[in-house]
Design a protein that fits this description.
This protein has helices spanning 25-43, 46-53, 57-64, 67-90, 96-111, 121-129, 134-160, 170-189, 194-208. The protein is mainly alpha-helical and 210 residues long. It is elongated, with a radius of gyration of 19 Å. It starts with 24 loop residues before the first helix and ends with a helix.
């Protein structure tokens, strides 16, 4: 299957016969995402996904394609929501260190949200499937790069305004910030308490905000 055939999360398919009248593609993707996040791609069965979305198997295929396409669509929608939240915090009028603290506080709340410490779909499930699934690998790499790009833009502005030193470079700082997000997600999924995650974040933020 060509990577180009995987639909973008903004390309919602048209309603076809057999779907519930109240069918909402975005809501269905959110429900599917919760299944993938809890069980992972491989363990999430079509029956699980059908039950979560309220669609039978034929309708599920008609709406989103195969399981891999559904996963990528759900992943892109999920990360798109995360990036929107990140953009909002980075656009605030506050010192860059304060904004970074708010970014990681928001991430920890998300990663540790009940009923499960699910972590991040991108870090916790997509990276697991990437070695054997090129479509997921490409989508994951693109989405990780979006976090890097936004952090780098923020740090470039702070360096240009003389709020931060010129070294480390903005790109290096961005990679450090993204890496912190990743480790927090992994630790959250293994049950690390939110307070401990916050302590880790607070210890690392000065490394890329001074």
């Amino acid at each position: 299957m060509s990577i180009n055939k995987v639909r973008n999360s903004t390309e919602m398919p048209r309603r076809t016969r057999g779907r519930p009248r109240a069918f909402e593609p975005e809501a269905a993707l959110d429900h599917a995402r919760r299944v993938f996040l809890q069980k992972g791609f491989a363990a999430a069965s079509l029956d699980d996904l059908a039950a979560a979305t309220g669609l039978n198997r034929p309708s599920l295929y008609a709406a989103f394609g195969d399981k891999e396409q559904l996963y990528v669509l759900a992943l892109r929608r999920y990360v798109g929501q995360l990036l929107a939240g990140l953009d909002a915090i980075l656009a605030e009028e506050a010192p860059v260190a304060v904004r970074m603290k708010r970014v990681f506080e928001a991430a920890i709340r998300l990663y540790c949200a009940p009923p499960h410490h699910a972590g991040c779909m991108l870090v916790s499930t997509a990276t697991t499937e990437s070695p054997g699934r090129p479509v997921i690998a490409v989508a994951s790499a693109e989405l990780i790069a979006e976090f890097d790009r936004r952090f780098e833009k923020c740090f470039k502005r702070a360096i240009g305004a003389a709020e931060l030193a010129r070294k480390p470079a903005a790109r290096t700082r961005a990679h450090m910030a993204s890496a912190l997000l990743h480790t927090l997600a992994v630790r959250a999924r293994t049950g690390t308490p939110a307070a401990e995650l916050a302590a880790i974040a607070n210890a690392f933020i000065p490394a890329f905000c001074e």
